[in-house]
Amino acid sequence: MGVTMKRLVNALILFAGLGCKAESRCDPGVAYGFDNIQPSANLTWTSCFDDFTCSRLEVPLDYSNRSLGTTSVAFIKLAGKNATVESPSIVIIPGGPGGSGVGLLFSYQALLGPIFGEQYNFVSFDPRGVNNSGLGLDCFSGNVEARLAFNRVYSTGVTNVSSTSLEEQYYSSSIYGEWCNDAVENEPYGYYVTTPAVAHDLLTFIEAEAEVAGQSPSDAKLWSYGVSYGTVIGTTFASMFPDRIGRMILDGILNADQYYDNGWSDSVDQMDEAMEKFSSFCHSAGPEKCSFWGPTPANITARIDGIIYQLQDHPVPLSRVRDRGLPTLVTYSDLKTLFVNTIYTPLASFPGMADILHQIENGNASALAGMFERLGSEPDAGRVIRCADSYRRNKVATIEEFKSFVEYTVSKSKYIGDIWPIYAETLACRSFQPQLPDSIVAQDPIGLDRPTSFPILFTSNTIDPITPLASARKMSSRFPGSVVLLQEAVGVSRYLIFYNYLE
Predict the structure, then answer these.
(1) Among 58, 66, 136, 361, which is 20 to 30 Å from 162 by CA?
(2) How far apart are CA 106 and CA 226, in angstroms?
(3) pLDDT tens, residue by residue, 412-466
(4) DSSP notation for 401-424
(5) Burial degree of 185 (CB within 10 A; 0-12, 13-18, 19+)
(6) Can you give the residue ranges of the Peptidase S33 tripeptidyl aminopeptidase-like C-terminal domain (predicted)?
(7) Which residues on adjacent β-strands are paired with residue 60?
(8) Contact 126, 159 (CB under 8 A)
């Protein structure tokens, strides 16, 4: 997904009840959950989670038809050490879709000041449908058994794991949308979670913030940093409101047109480059630091390929798996899941992958147990947002389109190509019927013929296995005056910040 992005989404989701710090007593004047904060059309900040302030901002369900009512969006703010009320707020736009900005800010609070500068306030939010914000949709309406049954029939393994797996995945995928469509009958606006609606919510936020500061709402500008799917929110905002860009840094760029088309094909372009770096880095690190070391990078690559072929033909039965003590079968799909999880953060994850490969080579495959099975464990928010965004433009709706997508990804990546179609879950959208108004649907290609009020800074690693460099260049070409900043590195998210850009 966004891309994106199961690993990012799962890592950044913050459960609604954070509670107070273990080493402190709860302050009765401080909120420790958004349920205790009253939604308001004004930006009313309440002390929360000891070091933050929080707000639930009321926003229209549909900005073109306000008679439909409102929902609430959860915002959280951390003041920089040298920030004042007049200081700009840098809005951290979370990834996903389905990622929690509340969790993101909470998790990375210690890094924000050193990265951006202590003269700013730092704000993030849970987009519509996510975690602490309104319109959260449970497609299975609490029916855990039904959800597990769907996962069993749909998540059968990598797309070409058998002669019938592609067809099984395609036809079973319709079940998901059908359950979501049924759930929306009890939550009639559950699909009003599209990215254009979220972009408009950000405009509402910056205007409300300006009003609180005694400034003109019509002059308010968005200062923001977006990563992964957050770059789609950013480029969508820039397309809708080009005169409202204060400073915008977008890092790890998704091709927004492919996102809205439900294509995701660009994402496989640099996956094998990233995997090949494992062999060269492992060899350079030496046997003391890389447990899967070999005398040459080619030797390491050949041994990885050998493990792939081995598991493809001979899955490994385990009579008992660690603490659960249950039997299972380690498969080729588990190995491919290891690969796709690792390339999100290769420098951090390569040592762990080396250890697992070393164990497999020595006859112990238990570390892979259940790895593929855990892919379907994320909340519905990511799928619902993505499917609502793409339902009019979905290019992976027919079985012929799905087969073409699979053929392309397999041809581009021998390591990730066969798991990417099921991992990205493009199929989950094919039976969605959102019936959304034009006002909250992306109508045109993202980008403008006129420049934004301040040039956008796009940043990318030279080898990005999920949000590739080509996507950064493509999106930058849509925004006159924008630039692409490159870092010689491999991985997805970088947090490349230049102080003079923010000044």
Answers:
(1) 361
(2) 16
(3) 999 999 999 999 888 999 999 998 999 999 988 898 777 999 999 999 999 999 9
(4) HHHHHHHHHHHH-TTTTTTHHHHH
(5) exposed
(6) 450-491
(7) 70
(8) no
Q: What is the pLDDT of residues 73-128, one digit of tens each?
A: 999 999 999 998 778 899 999 998 999 999 999 889 999 999 899 999 999 999 99
How far is the C-alpha of 279 from the C-alpha of 276, rounded, in Å?
6
Which residues 6+ apart lie within 8 Å of 94 measured at CB?
A: 12, 100, 101, 103, 104, 124, 125, 126, 127, 130, 227, 229, 230
Q: Which amino acid is residue 376, in one-letter code?
A: G
pTM of the model: 0.92
Nearest to 159 by CA among 148, 169, 144, 150: 169
Q: Which residue has the tokens 């899941």?
A: 337
Cα maximum dimension of the chain: 69
Token representation of residue 168: 């099984």
DSSP3 helix / strand / coil % (the chain, rounded to 5): 45, 15, 40
Give the start-end residues of each E strand in 32-119.
46-48, 52-60, 70-79, 89-93
Q: Are strands 70-79 and 326-330 parallel, antiparallel or unpaired?
A: unpaired
Sheet holding 121-126, edge to edge: 46-48, 52-60, 70-79, 121-126, 89-93, 222-228, 245-253, 457-463, 483-490
CA–CA separation, 172 vs 260, rounded Å? 23
Count of H-run helices and E-run strands, the chain: 17, 11
